[in-house]
Design goal:
Chain lengths: ~240, ~325
């Protein structure tokens, strides 16, 4: 446990000693605000909720989370520090969890800094705080799922750009999977079980139900399984690197 | 301390390390020699548990590296090839991270960092970012990392690579000093380093151990070992050669260098040729300017073992 935290602390430090953290947070907050107020017409709707705020998160995360995670293993491979790290008394799992937690905490910090918008709706009206909490939880889980994908793709290659693009493509696939235009197009030629299968691995249905304030264990379980699967695949890739 | 038995590693069809067996006990410094691609780094990576061996067993301080990897790794300090290091940290931050990874916290951590900083001469750059360090300092920072938990076993992959002569000397001295209480393996291309720091050396070529012994034993394997080299000032080559060839103790003789003022020749002896040679010298009134018995050079041993087709240059 202490080892995981030591690794996580180093990774978090890396975010904040380089400009990455600040650029990321500024861009995230700026885009989240711009989409909410300009595209989402937050004020014109006249409803005290955060739907127009959370609506854009999957699309922001699509690019920003892979950007935050592309470095995690690629850099270790490029610098050769992976050899250093994995010959210390750590198990691969500790290394993976340490890196994952550090980046997730970093994303949570960025998400937390959107708190003024909660104060804003609280000031303007009487929002349903339970629903806002669910919204934040869904957003955090979505970020966590995308992050696990980015962590996995970064272990494939020493090239951060390749790792970024792979992560974006996979995340985009997961976003589009459950989207009606896509499922409709597929249902024209594919058997029903393919359509259902595709729809069920899409992140949007799970994300949306959390936005509606429904705290369903199945949605949390979905995000949890994506994360566990990717972290497990990550450990397999690490083993393959060393064989 | 380190026991390697029948270690083999194949990458696809290529056999990088082929049935290697050796051991290093406490107080020994083992030099690992070999041409590039001979399997030195691969062997070291397997001993540190980074690469799993295809077959064979490795035990470090009594722990099997395959079965109890964490216990074994706790006792190993490892300097990987090219001294990789996290580039976005300060030297102090990096050492502090490594200390914590080794389970050192609080005052134990502080003491450990102070010790290695002094040992590796890092005071001047302690708060500098690793990015901005010169190669020598980067290397020594990574070396400090390997020493931070005062391990019983040290595995150093080319510890003096890229250092200037003074730094090389310091690192060599450091290795020799630590050698008395640890088991150390280090690889190098520089043969004089083996003589300076090792109590034993292994030459590995194409994945196999081709020589194993103390530096003196290895040197004795040199094709030139025991040869007598003499420089004579006042006799011409034509006069000299028959006089030497007549001696019973001379197996073979050839001229190494011929200049107007003197002639240098080398004798391959049969038994001890020196008394006879000196007697011949007085008898024929040679003006002997220089006389030397070749100890054998590791370079020659290394070349003759790893390049079996090359004849020793006369």
């Amino acid at each position: 446990m202490k080892t995981i935290w030591t690794i996580a602390k180093r990774e978090l430090g890396t975010y904040f000693t380089s400009p990455v953290a600040y650029v990321f947070i500024v861009i995230f907050l700026f885009l989240a605000g711009a989409f909410t107020f300009m595209v989402g017409r937050f004020f014109d709707r006249g409803v005290a909720d955060l739907l127009p705020f959370f609506l854009w998160h999957p699309w922001l995360y699509l690019f920003l989370v892979p950007a935050a995670g592309m470095r995690l293993w690629s850099e270790e491979l490029r610098l050769g520090t992976m050899e250093l790290l994995l010959t210390m008394p750590v198990t691969p799992w500790q290394a993976i969890l340490g890196k994952y937690l550090a980046s997730w905490i970093f994303l949570a910090i960025a998400l937390f800094l959107t708190f003024p918008i909660v104060i804003t709706v609280g000031y303007l009206g009487h929002p349903d705080y339970g629903r806002i909490f669910c919204g934040y939880l869904g957003s955090l889980m979505l970020a966590g799922a995308f992050l696990s994908i980015a962590l996995l793709t970064s272990s494939f290659t020493r090239n951060q750009v390749v790792s970024f693009i792979l992560a974006v493509v996979v995340c985009l696939f997961l976003i589009l999977c459950g989207w009606p235009p896509v499922t409709d197009a597929v249902s024209n030629w594919a058997p029903a079980w393919v359509v259902d299968g595709l729809a069920s691995i899409g992140v949007m249905t799970h994300f949306d139900s959390l936005q509606r304030g429904v705290l369903d264990s199945r949605d949390l379980l979905f995000f949890g399984s994506v994360i566990v699967f990717c972290l497990f695949a990550n450990s397999v890739v690490l083993r393959a690197h060393r064989a | 301390m380190i026991n390697v038995e029948h270690l083999t590693k194949t990458f696809g069809a290529k056999c990088a390390v082929d049935d290697v067996t050796f051991s290093v006990s406490k107080g020994e410094v083992l030099g690992f020699l070999g041409p590039n691609g001979a399997g030195k780094s691969t062997s070291m990576r397997m001993i540190t548990g980074y690469l799993p061996p295809t077959s064979g067993t490795i035990t470090v301080a009594g722990f099997n590296v395959a079965d109890q990897p964490l216990e074994a790794r706790r006792r190993i300090g490892y300097l990987p090839e090219n001294a990789p290091i996290y580039s976005d940290m300060s030297v102090l931050g990096f050492l502090s991270f490594c200390a914590e990874m080794r389970g050192l916290f609080g005052s134990a951590k502080k003491d450990a960092i102070d010790r290695v900083v002094q040992l590796c001469f890092l005071e001047r750059v302690l708060h500098q970012s690793v990015d901005t360090l010169s190669k020598g300092f980067r290397h020594r920072t990574c070396l400090a990392q390997a020493l931070i938990h005062d391990p019983e076993v040290l595995i150093l992959d080319e510890p003096t690579d890229g250092l200037d002569p003074n730094q090389k000397y310091e690192v060599r001295t450091l290795i020799r000093r630590m050698g008395s209480e640890k088991a150390i393996i280090f690889s190098t291309h520089i043969l004089e380093e083996v003589e300076a720091a090792c109590s034993r050396a292994i030459i590995i070529d194409q994945g196999k151990i081709v020589a194993n012994g103390t530096p003196d034993e290895l040197k004795a394997q040199s094709p030139f070992a025991g040869n007598v080299i003499v420089t004579v000032g006042n006799v011409s080559k034509a006069q000299l050669l028959p006089q030497i060839e007549a001696l019973k103790g001379v197996e073979k003789v050839w001229i190494v260098a011929e200049k107007p003022e003197h002639v240098t020749f080398q004798v391959v002896p049969r038994g001890n040729v020196l008394p006879e040679l000196l007697e011949a010298g007085t008898r024929n009134a040679w003006k002997i300017e220089h006389l030397d018995v070749e100890e054998g050079r590791l370079d020659d041993v290394f070349r003759s073992i790893t390049l079996p087709d090359t004849k020793p240059a006369a």
